[in-house]
Structure formats: C-alpha cells, structure tokens
C-alpha cells in the first residue's frame, strides 16, 4: 500500500505573496480556482508551482484550460524548451467539466507520475476567502 500523506491546503488570494513551500518535494497539486486572476498572477503562480517541485498539476475552476497552458509553459521555460527525461516531466490536466469531488478522486487514485512516487498533495485554493474545512472534507470524501 502506497503511503499517502494528508493533503496540505493553501489559500491564495490573487494579491498574496507566494510562500516558500517547505518539506514538499515532487508533489501533486490540485488548483481550485474560484476567482478570476490577472494573467501575470496566473503566470507567477504557474512558475512558482514548477519551481517548487510540482510534478502533477490538476486544475479545476475558472479558466482551467488557461491555467493548464500556463503551467505547461512555465515548465517549458524552466527546462529551456528542451526535451526532458521522465524524471523532469510535469504532467497537467484541466477539469473544467468535472465536479470538484471527481478531481479529488482522480488526484487520489489516478494521478501518477512515471518517475516519482508522489506522496504529497497540495490543494492550492485561489479565492478571496479560505474554505479549508469544506475543501479538506470534500477531498477526504472523494
């Protein structure tokens, strides 16, 4: 049985400074996007995720496809647009037509990386106000 750590919840308001992600290495991220953000902010968050070691990003909510593209582009930028081996892959999916519970289920049961065991899941909630308990409960019930 694969060891899974409980998900970490991080609330980001669009104007927040991006924190340093301590003790996370090769992790899955579920972006729950509840608000519109400026393209520059989307880029900053995408680059921050890639630089922080995100290896699998699932995006749900507003502009999910644009978020997925931004993360893909941030990864390309970080690797100088060169072909990378499996270990350096960043996998992205967007889930604009799914319920959040389906994305959480996918994150727990299907999202895997060819080169890394991804034990940690970071839920990045991009919203004006946090909903930690509600979102963590939804994750656990998925």
From TrEMBL:
<feature type="domain" description="DUF7684">
    <location>
        <begin position="8"/>
        <end position="141"/>
    </location>
</feature>
<protein>
    <recommendedName>
        <fullName>DUF7684 domain-containing protein</fullName>
    </recommendedName>
</protein>
<dbReference type="Pfam" id="PF24733">
    <property type="entry name" value="DUF7684"/>
</dbReference>
<dbReference type="InterPro" id="IPR056101">
    <property type="entry name" value="DUF7684"/>
</dbReference>
